[in-house]
Design brief:
Number of helices: 6
Helix content: 10-25%
Radius of gyration: 26 Å
């Protein structure tokens, strides 16, 4: 047993049952004694910048604990006893060399609101993290994540930061986060911004700088809900721009009928703004039977002829200057490559300013 650690703990725990706050940063501590369980009234515990590698099982007896700082230690695993802390609201565990996280099977972290796991070596987060019932802030910067956890509607997350990972795709479960206001994904490996990101009802700030975007969907650019959109440091200036090719140019009867239905009842050319058109479209779709709703819910408007299409379209790229809220590096004199959809080969040929192959 480390004598220096023993002396430090002996001095600090002499008033164990009465302790409400305990600050022991930078004490070269190598262990936490079982006697910590006697601190039944402890609400805040700071053990950062030590040499801890594990915690005793009795640690879960600290039922009054609401704030815990274990940052800058030597844990290879976040122990399961942490998830048993019934009233823990804030857990700081960055820079701990953590590779994996252990959780109890039933109701882990029932009261946790803020979780900071940044600057570790985590490859995958447990699925239960996406369903924590009180979690509002999740920081996972500078790990080895290739994907975010799958989230459920029970999670009230407001801020999600996962900078400096290896994330390649985003999961549609993000749209279940009804309170998500800030999504920070700087320095990952994303090649596209999925259109479903617009379905996050509360999202105000989205930072996807320093990824591998070559173009941005026009619907992302023209929307007004996300007020702060950052995309600096993406390879927009590279030349590998092309259409995605025609998709089903031999139009099916379903495509033909769906286009006629929408163009007759919600003619895009009769609306002054995109918001007015979106409102009218949603109101009309709501009047349709469920089987028809599923057919037209993903409809789009052709960039060239301003008429509806469903699944039959061509994607093309045009250099445009983005709105002021869209912060990104612009191509000299030509804006950034924005991806538009057109409804046919004819509309593609008739369009202007498409980027050359």
């Amino acid at each position: 047993m480390d004598r220096q650690s023993s002396n430090a703990w002996g001095h600090s725990l002499r008033h164990g049952p009465k302790l409400k706050m305990l600050n022991m940063p930078s004490k070269n501590l190598c262990f936490v004694p079982e006697e910590i369980a006697a601190c039944t009234q402890l609400t805040k515990l700071v053990l950062c910048r030590n040499k801890l590698t594990s915690l005793p099982l009795s640690f879960s007896s600290l039922t009054a604990l609401t704030q815990l700082n274990l940052s800058n230690n030597l844990f290879s695993t976040a122990p399961a006893c942490l998830s048993r802390l019934a009233n823990l609201k804030v857990l700081q565990m960055h820079r701990c060399q953590v590779r994996s996280i252990e959780l109890v099977e039933e109701a882990p972290f029932p009261m946790l609101e803020i979780l900071n796991l940044s600057e570790n070596q985590i490859i995958e987060l447990p699925a239960a993290i996406g369903s924590l019932p009180r979690l509002t802030t999740l920081s996972m910067d500078a790990n080895n994540l290739s994907a975010l956890p799958i989230f459920t509607a029970i999670c009230p997350l407001e801020r999600l930061s996962a900078m400096g990972n290896s994330i390649t795709t985003l999961d549609p479960s993000l749209t279940t986060l009804q309170h998500l206001k800030e999504l920070i994904l700087v320095d990952n490996q994303l090649t596209d911004v999925p259109i479903f990101i617009l379905q996050c009802p509360a999202l105000v700030t989205f930072d996807i700088s320093l990824n591998f975007l070559r173009s941005v969907d026009s619907r992302i650019v023209v929307q007004k809900k996300i007020k702060h959109f950052y995309a600096e440091g993406n390879p927009f200036r590279e030349k590998a721009y092309d259409t995605d090719g025609e998709q089903g140019q031999s139009m099916t009867l379903v495509e033909f009928a769906s286009r006629a239905l929408l163009n007759t009842n919600v003619d895009p050319r009769t609306f002054r703004t995109g918001d007015e058109l979106t409102t009218a479209f949603n109101e009309f779709v709501a009047t349709l039977p469920p089987e028809l709703q599923s057919l037209v819910v993903d409809a789009g408007v052709c960039r060239t002829c301003s008429k509806w299409f469903i699944r039959c379209y061509v994607e093309a790229i045009e250099y445009c200057l983005p709105p002021a809220r869209f912060k990104c590096d612009t191509r000299e004199g030509g804006g950034i490559p924005i991806r538009f959809r057109v409804c046919s080969s004819k509309c593609f040929r008739d369009g202007q300013n498409w980027a050359p192959r």
